[in-house]
Each structure stands twice: as structure tokens, then as C-alpha cells.
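Hi, here's the filled form for the chain we discussed.

Project: internal
Contact: R.S.
Residues: 210
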Amino acid sequence: MKNPAYSLVLITAAAWSPMLVGCDFLAKKASEKAIEAATGNEVSIDGKKVEIKTKDGKTAVIATGDNQVTIKTDDGEAVYKQENGKVTIDGPDGKVVLGEASEGELPKDFPLPVPEDTTVLRTGSMDSDKSGLMRTASLKSELDPTAVGDFYAKHLEQEGFKVKRTATKAGPMDMVMVAAEKDKVQVGAQAMAGVGESGTIVNLSWVEKR
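And the returned structure, exactly as it came back:
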């Protein structure tokens, strides 16, 4: 949604909505008051539907069911779905997918490889007509940050990317960052490890501009 404050109202109410299913009259009234207190707006609950009227005259209708929450506003409709540990948010500004990783594996179409002895922690994606496609992943590698940086710098150079690499130390933290660009694609790989800690945390990003 385009208004950040309005979006916060909707997110707060959406978080409450699944709890409202099956509530009796008194419970619903209590929930209405709780959401009103959290958002500062007028709230009405009817079965699986929540209607919010904001102070500036806008209206949002939130409906729950089938592992999803649908939010309709003046700006359009957004659908939040949760299935098999994955959350999908499909709205007027594009689609966001969180938690794509399954059993520690990257999605089959993820555009970057991972080094050996690496565990996939989580992945996500966002597809927008305005900003393009973004894929992200967080990993934990048994390699040190320098070796991780070597791995991604070499791979991206072989794929024809223009690569820039930096290494820094911030207190006990050792960090290597690789940034690469080719045509309309920008890639980032950040590897971090603390002195005395086991493993390196790796954050990957892949952005394809429209």
C-alpha cells in the first residue's frame, strides 16, 4: 500500500484477523476494542471479516479463510497466503514471497550457487512492475568470509559481471562484500564472521530491474 501509516494499520489488523474466527459476541467486541486501541481507528468485526474506518475517511475490509487474509482498500486488493511454511503477499505493487527454502535447499530457480558445506537458512523474493524482481537468501557457511568472497567473485566474473570486492574489520567482526553488475542485474554477496565464532553468515541479493 502506498501510505506507510495506513499500511501499518492494515498489517496490525491482519495480524489480529485469524484470531477472530469463531469468537463469540463478547470476544469479538473485546477484539474490536483491542484493534482500535492498537490502530487508533474505528473497527467492526462480523464473522471472518474485519472492517476498518480510518480517521481520514479511508476504509479497509479484511477477510480471513483458507490459510489466507484478503485486504481490500481504495488502493486495491492484497492477499496474504501461508502454506507449507511459505508466506506470499500479492498486492497492487507486486508479489512478495518469504520463506521459500524447503529443508535447507534453495528454490530450483534461484540465480546464484552456494559453496559446499553451506546451510540455507531462509530465502525470499519480491516481484514488482516498478522495481523489478528481487531474490534474497541467508546462508551459514563453514568457509571463512575471505573464501566465500572468493567463491562469489570468481563465479560472477565467469558469468560476465563487473565485480567490486571490499574487505573490512569492525571490532571482532570480519566482513567481505562482493558487488557485481551486468546489464540490468545487480548482485550482492556479504559474508560476516565474528572472531571465535563458528561459521560465516552469508547474505545474497539478486535484483533484475525492469
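Let me know if anything looks off before we file it.
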